[in-house]
Amino acid sequence: MNNNWYKRYKSQEQLAPGLAAQPSPVWLKALALGGLCILTPLLSQAQATRAISGRVVDANSGGLPGVTVVVPGSTVGTSTGPDGSFRLDVPAAATTLSFSFVGFTTQQVSIADKSTVQVTLREDTQVLGDVVVVGYGTARKQDVTGAVAVVGEKDFNRGTFTSPDQLLQGRVSGVQVSNNSGQPGGPSTIRIRGNSAVTGTGQPLYVVDGVPLDGRSARPGLVASADIGAGADSNPLNFLNPDDIESFTVLKDASATAIYGSRAAYGVVLITTKKGQSGAPTLNVGISNGFSTLLRRPEFLDASQYRQALTYYGVAATNDKGGDVNALDEILRTGYLQNYTVAVSGGGETGRYRLSLGYLDQDGIVRKTGFKKYSANLSTNLQFLQSKKLGLDVNISTSQFREQLAPITTDAGFRGSLIGQALQWNPTQPLRNPDGSLYVVAGDVVNPLANQEYYNDNSRVTTILASASPYYNFTSWLNYRALISVNYNTGQRRTSIDQRLINFPDLIDKGFASISDNELVTQQITHTLNFNKAVATSLNLNAVLGYEYTKFANSGSNVNAFGNPTGGGFGVFGLDYTNYIQYSAAGNRRISSFVDPSSQLQSVFGRVILNFKDRVVLTGTLRRDESTKFGPNNRVGYFPSFAVAWDLSQESFFPAERLSQLKLRAGYGRTGNQEFPAGSAQARYTLDENGEARSPLNARNDDLKWQSDAQFNAGIDVGAFDNRLTFTADYFYKTTTDLLFPTVPGEPRPSNAPIRWANLDGKIVNKGVELSLGTVLVRKDKVDVGFNANATFIRNEVSDLVGPAIITGAINGQGLSGSTSQLIRNGYPINAFFLPQFTGLNDQGLSNELGPIAYSGSPNPRTLLGLSANARYGKLSLIANMTGVFGQYVYNNTINAVGNVGQIGAGKNIALSTFENGTKESTGNPAAASTRYLEKGDFLKMSNLTLSYGVGDVGSVFKGARVYITGQNLFVITKYDGFDPEVNTVKRGANQVPSVGIDYLPYPSARTFTLGVNFSL
């Protein structure tokens, strides 16, 4: 471009000689002369320019698009392209360029005597936290008065995950994330500030881009023949691709969660997905492959030790079958995984978009298990009208995942599930006959390899979460927004068991097939009006007023059948039994279906945040919920909260040269819980087969009301050394009352007497202290070192409970029917272990008389620990995350049931610890539940370790490439004898109350290694 206007003017003048001959007025000549005198220096300076080019990258050498590049004190500037590159013509006299980008520290770089520069921007931790996503809106970080933790992408756990909740493990104080199963796609338990769930899951409310989730999975439960039991549930967050997550905001105290009212008793986790960025289209690609192996195992006898044990215990030598086999190894494998993600984003001033696709295929370490997911996510942010006051945000997340499942259950009959069968298999008995066929003989000892081969269980869950949110900005301080959403989930499960598995009497010459379908639908509409304006000198008001309506629906069906024994059962046609279930015996078919009463929740809510001079902040919220789940006398609930914060760093007396922040917070609020079956306040019936009867399901209770949680919180936030050192401490006291519980009528009662849901008198108190520390130890151009830690110290107690203690904690296994291990009782932690006291063995190798049943320990941890360290040298980075849980006990139901000495007398294997006992134990010693099998569950686990290298640009095609290797579950430090002390095999065999801290033949945990690469195009 030719910037010399004077030259262009003269050339045009010479093209019209006729005009040049005409005389010009004197005033015109004077005006032209004066203008030239003024413009000539400027125009000559405009000509004196030079070109500067370069690239802007982050700490991992990834290109940063959209960075503003300007010459300080001028309007000369540009923005970086998709790969972070830029080119700019600057005045010849310019010596500095300024680089600024949201979330990063602005930098000024010298360009004297340079034609190219490369700039590495550093993340500004203070700026990154300036805006926090809170319920139904956002707030400045300095306006937050509650206990709120924000975890961004750079702080996520590294590795390959089937669901995003694992990204949070160990990253937030007060939050415990436990894996219920090592099965890919298996569920997790998340506890925020302790356990107060007498019934239900006790899980927090998840809100994805403003849409609260149902919290359930559409995968049908296992319907199988007797003795198989029930497997672990599926994770309700499996439909989300972890790579699509931008941040989590964890609302921990009631002053933060009360805006969600009756669904917020167990905390709230706000999930924000990634959105498009303005600029030219950018294509981001992630590719990773890896493998998984068994993390650790309980020690059982090998073939040599087993032969010694036969002699030692005086068991018949005929139990030595001459072989040498490790049955657990035979059913396990190295599981391989592959994960691919592609995302394209871009847009302009009035519209941005992001489209992502994902594919994950992960084998389980147990043969014939795995998880496969296809996912897609689309988000658009559009603005309309010349004023851009009208806008529309659209988010659509859709996925389908398929699971191949094993017969691994937490409440199997005495024949056990797959893991128990493998552990107790005689290590001298080959699993296959000499001809290669499976060794299967009648009796109670099940060949685990045969069980695995003859069992098929496959599920498919499809999810669509879609929302449209139109909004209108009346002014810069008044905004209306609507949110219309639907969450549709449908699941199918097909299970078949081959008739050749003759160890199960129901299957002999029959076989079994089951087909189940479930459908979950949640519909919601929300209206909010947001106000954010200075209403007086030094006083700002941020307020939201809203209305919300939500409708829940759940239905399903099942058909299952046994084959016709007189016709050869299902036969051998090379097809899965579920593909010709009509071939079954008509008299052996069962058809069932259900529909839950439709439940509806109607709410009005509001929040006010008053900020005075950025020094004192007051927050008040109130929500009114009306739910059809409750009795007609108590359908309406009110959930208020109040909080205050004082930021001393804004005061004139504050020593700013020492501290960059000192903020005090305190708050109190009340939330509710409605996590129990729809229709529980009504008289409900099941319609039985052949129209013969109506069986009562639950009795009516017009007075059933909300379970209530009241919580007090006090905290302090400290920043020092320009926030390179940050510290947060919180004290909380949470009281849960009006406990929802399915009561059983007293004796005498009819055999089909229904349960009655009621509110129990009593309370559960969780109190404790949370500490979080963040440091930036070194921050230089080539070197970064940081360390973060969080710890939670928590106590739990039940009090004021009227009536007898609540029994829970079912213990399963042969000879253990009806055994329980836990009570909910005044003066003790929830789910406290109450067990007969084991007093040792006598001279005959029999157990001494067991001591009285007494309090034996708590399954609830007293201390949670999270550690994170990061280091960078040049383009090489290392990130390590560890998780620790201390103070809890775990009941080793696995050793109790399948590792006891009595097994060897029946030709089965036993635990090495049993064999190595200092006292020779009698094989006739009963395996009673007692403190003998209660162990300390303390552990410290290396959750993930990632080493990465920022390759940068490769040629002109690949931009910002980064390669990495990640290890997950690398090791665990513990004295526990089971598979993994991080256990929560939730069982409901006693009074429908979920158990805690009982380890019974779970799907084993895996150690995973992943090699991957990320780049942009």
Short description:
With 1017 residues, the protein is mainly beta. Helices cover 9% and strands 47% of the residues. The chain is globular.
Provide a descriptive summary of the structure in words:
The chain has 1017 residues and is mainly beta. It has twelve helices and 49 strands. The chain has a 22-stranded antiparallel beta barrel. It has a five-stranded mixed sheet with strand order 10-15-16-13-14. It is globular, with a radius of gyration of 33 Å. The protein starts with a helix and ends with a strand. Residues 1-47 and 125-129 have low confidence and may be disordered.
Helix and strand topology:
Elements: H1 5-14, H2 17-20, H3 26-47, E1 49-57, E2 68-70, E3 77-79, E4 85-91, E5 96-100, E6 107-110, E7 116-120, H4 125-128, E8 131-134, E9 137-140, E10 148-152, E11 175-179, E12 188-192, E13 205-208, E14 211-212, E15 245-251, H5 254-257, E16 268-273, E17 279-294, H6 303-313, H7 327-331, E18 335-348, E19 351-363, E20 370-384, E21 390-404, H8 418-423, H9 448-454, E22 455-473, E23 478-497, E24 512-536, E25 539-562, E26 589-595, E27 599-612, E28 616-627, E29 636-647, E30 659-673, E31 684-687, E32 694-698, E33 707-720, E34 725-743, E35 756-779, E36 783-799, E37 806-810, E38 820-824, E39 832-836, E40 853-857, E41 863-873, E42 876-886, E43 889-892, H10 893-898, H11 902-905, H12 912-915, E44 934-936, E45 939-954, E46 958-968, E47 972-974, E48 998-999, E49 1006-1016
Parallel strand pairs: 1-7, 13-16, 43-48
Antiparallel strand pairs: 1-4, 2-3, 2-5, 5-6, 8-9, 10-15, 11-12, 13-14, 15-16, 17-18, 17-49, 18-19, 19-20, 20-21, 21-22, 22-23, 23-24, 24-25, 25-26, 25-27, 27-28, 28-29, 29-30, 30-33, 31-32, 33-34, 34-35, 35-36, 36-41, 37-38, 38-39, 39-40, 41-42, 42-45, 43-44, 45-46, 45-47, 46-49
